[in-house]
Design goal:
This protein is of the alpha/beta class. The chain folds into 2 domains: about 110 residues, Roll (Urease, subunit C, domain 1); about 290 residues, Metal-dependent hydrolases (TIM Barrel, Alpha-Beta Barrel). It is about 35% helix and about 25% strand. Helix 4 packs across helix 5, helix 5 runs parallel beside helix 6 and helix 12 packs antiparallel against helix 13. The two termini are about 20 Å apart. The model has no long low-confidence stretch (mean pLDDT about 95). Bound molecules: N-(iminomethyl)-L-glutamic acid and fe (iii) ion (FE). The site of N-(iminomethyl)-L-glutamic acid has 12 residues, from helix 3.
Length: about 425
């Protein structure tokens, strides 16, 4: 049995004795202990407290870590990403600088279709290695749990290939991984004028294999003008439900077309993006149990209006924040930057952003009993910061790497 003592922690943050999804005002409460210790046993949190109350003997531990001057936080829970992709798309980045919109690029066969063409031509092993490198990079930036979507296959073979890569990441990585089937990301070229044909392919051909091989935990649809309508979203999600996949949906990124009401009706775990929210969208989301997942770096990268986080929190919504790491709208999985953007652009308080990126992110992946807070019995997933004067310094000093080291399941990575 391995037991680790982490001692003399300047500030231990994100402590939760009772686990619950934070909503509205609750998001601003982040419990901390100054001058603290933490005990890890077999990869799990076994105890924590003030150094003054430390009653153990040094010989009780197989290993000791000094954390003088450091702040220790739960590792980030990034509940919305697309990290399995074949290639970057910086040529479209230039097109956007020159004035084309995301929707115009998509209409020209760029965007998701561009990534799909490249992904279908890339062998599974190569995709796996590329995704491993990305996961490795973001875990060093503090991410300890992640949701990863398919959606760049858009063919049975391509979607299954992506989901098999995600399954391998799940088995291999110290980062906890959840898989989402996003076959309904866009219509492939050959189904441009036969939407029903592609929906039938998703429902009758892709979903049964995905269910049989247990390749996905969730189902996602890009519910958006020019992509999937609310009716199509409903049909696809109901088929997913039949196989036990709960919805986590892309809605209200470019337009408000009823995705919020549809997602609530479908009992979605989360509704993600939310750049364009009407007052009614905010109101019905606040009255529902569904998590609104905000992706501020996608809004930033596409020069979209920022998500109305303040309005949503004040209305009593439950909010998570995530990176949306993907080659088209957010080519970064750095959750430290997501937190900074949440504070700078969306006017979230540092405590709100940290909670939205930890415990609420964990809820948005149904991993809340395992990760997302300093709670006895949860995984020993911690960020050790370099010396910082306060928690607010993390988002304030955006762009500076303030992470000294990361522990996942009791291992320094
Ligand atoms: O979350 N909006 C839909 N899907 C992704 C972008 C995909 C892409 O452009 O490759 C997103 O922003
Ligand atoms: Fe996305």
């Amino acid at each position: 049995m391995s037991s680790i003592l982490i001692k003399n922690i300047k500030l231990l943050a994100g402590i939760r004795e009772d686990n619950f999804l934070l909503r509205g005002k609750q998001l601003a409460k982040l419990t901390t202990i100054k001058d603290a210790f933490l005990i890890v046993q077999d990869g799990l949190i076994a105890a924590y407290g003030k150094m003054d109350d430390f009653v153990y003997r040094n010989s009780d531990f197989s290993w000791q870590v000094e954390a003088i001057g450091q702040t220790v936080l739960p590792a980030w829970c990034d509940s919305h990403t697309h990290i399995v992709f074949a290639d970057s798309r910086e040529e479209e980045f230039i097109d956007k600088i020159k004035g084309l919109s995301y929707a115009e690029i998509a209409a020209r066969g760029g965007g998701i279709l561009n990534s799909a063409k490249r992904l279908n031509a890339t062998p599974e092993n190569e995709l796996f290695n590329l995704a491993c490198d990305r996961l490795d990079e973001i875990s060093k930036q503090g991410t300890g749990a992640i949701e990863i979507k398919s959606g760049y296959g858009l063919s049975t073979e391509g979607e299954l290939k992506m989901l098999r890569v995600i399954k391998r990441l799940k088995e291999k990585s110290l980062v906890s991984v959840k898989a989402t089937f996003l076959g309904a990301h866009t219509y492939p070229v050959e189904y441009k004028d036969n939407h029903q044909g592609y929906i039938d392919l998703i429902i009758n051909e892709m979903l049964p294999v995905i269910a049989q091989e247990k390749l996905a935990d969730y189902i996602d649809v890009f519910c958006e003008t020019g992509f999937f309508s609310t009716e199509e979203t409903e049909k696809i999600c109901q088929a997913g439900r039949h196989y036990g996949l709960k919805p986590k949906l892309h809605v209200n990124q470019l337009n408000s077309i009823g995705g919020i009401a549809t997602g609530i009706k479908l009992d979605a775990i989360s509704l993600d993006h939310l750049e364009i929210m009407t007052d009614e969208d905010v109101d019905i989301l606040a009255k529902s149990p569904v998590i609104g997942t905000l992706l501020p770096t996608a809004a930033f990268f596409l020069r979209m209006p920022v998500q109305p986080a303040r309005k949503m929190i004040d209305a009593g919504c439950t909010i998570a924040i995530a990176s949306d790491y993907n080659p088209g709208s957010s080519p970064s999985g750095n959750m430290n930057f997501v937190i900074a953007m949440s504070c700078i652009q969306m006017k979230m308080l540092p405590e709100e952003a940290i909670n939205a990126a930890t415990i609420n992110g964990a809820y948005a992946m149904e991993l809340h009993n395992e990760v997302g807070s300093i709670t006895i019995g949860k995984k020993a997933n911690f960020i050790f910061t370099k010396p910082i004067p306060s928690l607010a310094y993390l988002p304030y000093s955006f762009g500076t790497n303030l992470i000294d080291k990361v522990m996942l399941k009791g291992n320094f990575i």
